[in-house]
Specification:
The protein has about 150 residues and is α+β, with helices and mostly antiparallel strands. The protein is built from two helices and ten strands, in the order ααββββββββββ. The strands form three sheets. Strands 2-10-9-5-6 form a five-stranded mixed β-sheet, with no helix packed on it. A three-stranded mixed β-sheet has the order 1-3-8, with no helix packed on it.
Length: about 150
């Protein structure tokens, strides 16, 4: 009788250990999918004049889990680039653009990446108007993009 109990406990322990030995990742962060295509593979540590041509570049940076710029300007009806510098070491940030305010439709979503690093996002042309730029990971990080 004791042997049967011991055998049952040993088999259950082996089954539990086998289930815990899975090497796949546990909980991971994955942002909600965007309505926009992923950023181009031309993203780099800085804008290069040869690769970017004559596109206007909007500078945005993050430090202390907030954008350092509260408002920026971009040209209307022409593609442009956002050079985003994440100065927060090890903290993931990005720039996404929303129509009107933070509750508006997401029109562009840049790659989320940890700092300290810089990415250059290629943004499609936008109509003149006011847009919110928001960090997908930290939605309290907000600024205003004026397109004119």
């Amino acid at each position: 009788m004791r042997f049967a109990r011991f055998l049952t406990v040993a088999l259950m322990s082996a089954a539990i250990l086998a289930g815990c030995a899975d090497t796949s990742a546990g909980w991971t962060y994955a942002p909600a999918p965007s309505l926009t295509p992923p950023p181009s593979s031309a993203a780099s540590a800085g804008a290069s004049a040869g690769a970017s041509g004559s596109l206007d570049v909007v500078q945005i940076s993050a430090l202390g889990v907030k954008y350092e710029q509260t408002s920026v300007t971009a040209p209307a009806d022409t593609p442009f680039q956002v050079s985003f510098e994440n100065k927060d070491a090890g903290v993931p940030h990005n720039v996404s653009l929303h129509l009107g305010d933070v509750n508006g439709a997401e029109l562009f979503k840049g790659e989320v990446f940890p700092g300290v690093a810089t990415r250059v996002y290629d943004v499609p042309k936008l109509d003149a108007g006011s847009y919110a730029f928001v960090c997908t990971v930290h939605p309290t990080m907000i600024g205003t993009l004026t397109v004119e």
